[in-house]
Design goal:
Helices cover about 50% and strands about 0% of the residues. It is mostly helical. The N terminus is likely disordered.
């Protein structure tokens, strides 16, 4: 997979974007940008990629798409998605210096905005996540890297909110890690 080619064909934007498809699946499968590679987190990435094919803003529109995807899962799978999101988000902390330079040079994103930005990156899909995990400087190759500054929080709240809604638990009693 040519990461740079995938990124430039991604169509991601921090602004309002039109859906990639009008239906739930692209003819012939997911677009290369949203396609996964299987592995230990295949179920997680399948949900991310399903939301990716509907919208690629990594924020409100894609959060709505993710909520539709997760609403079809049972509560244990929603909890598993949340735990995976938190784990993968934390594993991307190495992109912080590059993200800080892109978004707020000289100041940095800080903890909350940094977490949201990493969630925005994860919403781009497994190929982007793995490339940045291997080489954080590749964030500079992401065409909409600057547009993602300040985005990602709604996407990161979907699974936790759905879990709380289904279980009737408070955030303190949920037993799930938050972002």
């Amino acid at each position: 997979l040519d990461f740079r080619r995938v990124l430039f064909r991604s169509g991601c934007s921090g602004g309002t974007v039109a859906p990639v498809t009008t239906g739930p699946w692209v003819e012939g499968g997911l677009p290369e940008y949203c396609a996964g590679y299987d592995g230990a987190d295949a179920g997680f990435w399948e949900a991310v990629h399903s939301s990716c094919q509907v919208a690629q803003d990594g924020d409100l529109l894609q959060a709505d798409a993710l909520e539709q995807v997760l609403s079809d899962l049972d509560t244990d799978d929603v909890a598993r998605f949340q735990r995976t999101l938190v784990r993968l988000n934390r594993s991307l902390r190495g992109i912080a210096p590059v993200a800080d330079e892109i978004c707020l040079p000289g100041l940095g994103l800080g903890q909350d905005l940094g977490t949201d930005y990493r969630t925005w990156v994860i919403a781009h899909g497994q190929a982007v996540y793995e490339a940045l995990l291997a080489d954080p400087d590749r964030l500079r190759d992401l065409p909409d890297a600057h547009d993602g500054c300040g985005l990602g929080q709604p996407y990161g709240e979907v699974a936790f909110g759905l879990y709380l809604e289904r279980t009737g638990r408070s955030p303190a009693d949920a037993g799930l890690p938050g972002l």
